[in-house]
Amino acid sequence: MACSAIAVSGENAxxxxxxxxxxxxxxxxxxxxxxxxxxxxxxxARWQQLLSYSHQLTTSQTLxxxxxxxxxxxxxxxxxxxxxxxxxxxxxxxxxxxxxxDCEDFAIAKYISLLQIGIKQRQLRLIxxxxxxxxxxxxxxxxxxxxxxxxxxxxxPLILDNLISDIRPASxxxxxxxxxxxxxxxxxxxxxxxxxxxxxxxSGWQSVLLRMRQEGLYRxx
Length: 221
What we know:
The protein is α+β, with helices and mostly antiparallel strands and 221 residues long. Helix content is 36%, strand content 20%. The protein has one domain: C8orf32 fold (Roll). The chain is built from seven helices and eleven strands. A seven-stranded antiparallel beta sheet has the order 7-6-5-4-8-9-10, covered by helices on one side. A two-stranded antiparallel ribbon has the order 1-11. The chain has a two-stranded parallel ribbon with strand order 2-3. The protein starts with 14 loop residues before the first strand and ends with a strand.
């Protein structure tokens, strides 16, 4: 279940969350069977219902529901299988239409969903890690991405991961070795914010933000 490494390049892109009311199933194609089309529509409808209902929940309840929703609705598949590309970061809508994605797609979908219901960007970071396979001293490592939620700026983050169903504090995930983290506002290395812009340094991020704006999820500042 290895995820591909993150590419670097691209143009600057600054964004902010917008309404999710314009989410559609326009990605469904004529070649899809009726059952596949119905399934895709149902997943998108359930996502919208979840986003609407989550405003009534506590933050802890919301984190669990968002994490569980994508872990249950989406199966892990690599980009070659799903998109016939070596590396492709999908929008949440694309991921739900396919009902498949890799670790980056899970993390992005959870990140965007939490932004949509009002979680602050400063509380969320996508973290590129090395996931250890086997015992702690195992040399086997896989590139992986998870989502971190920070209750406070200096608090220990909670990790939302497609590899396990429960949400645990970072200290309880010794199998994950952080490399760097980012959100729409910046990039952090060894816990310190860098001067680099995620829009210019992460090509996959810049591309997926553009497509989300086109879908109505994001708009340019």
